[in-house]
Amino acid sequence: MTATVNHHVEALTPQHVQGFAQLAARLADNIGAVVLGKPQVVRLALTALFAQGHVLLEDVPGVGKTTLARAMAATIRGQWRRIQFTPDLLPADVSGVTIFNQATRGFEFHPGPVFANVVIADEINRASPKTQSALLEVMEERTVTVDGVRHPVPRPFLVVATQNPVEMDGTYRLPEAQLDRFLVKLSVGYPSEAVEIEVLRGATMRSPEALEAVADTNMLGQMVAMAQRVHIADPLYAYSVRLAAATRNHPHVRVGVSPRGVIALTRAACAYALIEGRGFVLPEDLKTLLEPVFAHRILLSSDAQLRGVTSADVLRDAVQQVPVPLPAGHQPPPG
């Protein structure tokens, strides 16, 4: 678990911020040409990309989860691999395997599909927990250990996983440790009537394979580095910590947001601010990202689940309880 430190780094110039926002808009437009009517979902997915986080897309079949994942991969000029998770998939099918070479009389490592810049883990919750755990190390440390030898994966590295709701047949619930490694969990949702008609009109013409890459891995690496230079004031660090503490102390919560979750929120807020054309974070950025970053990290008590309480309800309570930090010199209204 590594924190992004924003202190004592060179400040971003307005030209840097404007250039970042323009390129981010081009990436979003490119993906939006295939994923119609979901600009905020695309923006949040790009936020995770620039914050060096991973994306979990959960929704019912047929709403465009895999299309979004493939469109993100096609927009970046780099290596991408797709892993179709099934009940009989083995951990070695994901990470790779060491094989004895008769010609050289030695063991050779054959990398698995996880060795790519963008890895699409399709229907990740259809695989067994043992296979799901093959992604734990690589998602956090960007390395794969096979037979005691560590192998680094290419950088930048992004996992875009899709899953169907856990109530559906043939699915295994993702363990909490793995959920915590996803920066954001997003739901694509059903399109509006107008968008669905537009999809039908051009169903055969819009395909992720037809997209042209807008950025390469070098450019993406520079954008990631810029996101780490965004200014976030100390009161906003405190605000993030207090929001997480509010989830831990909530009466309906069994396990609240971890410190990794707080780091994820501040990292995502820095990237989101740049996408919005700012070199500094506002409290509104943290509020916008609170549910996508925090909701999947909260474990509700059994009683809360029976009452129909959701993670979103807990986060709404946290936002109401924790006062928003005000700029220096501003006093809250009396009463």
Automatic annotation (TrEMBL):
Keywords: ATP-binding, Nucleotide-binding. Belongs to the MoxR family. Residues 54-184 form the ATPase AAA-3 domain. Residues 246-317 form the ChlI/MoxR AAA lid domain. GO terms for molecular function: ATP binding; ATP hydrolysis activity. This is MoxR-like ATPase. InterPro entries: ATPase_AAA-3, CbbQ/NirQ/NorQ/GpvN, ChlI/MoxR_AAA_lid, P-loop_NTPase. Pfam families: AAA_3 (PF07726), AAA_lid_2 (PF17863). The keyword Nucleotide-binding applies.
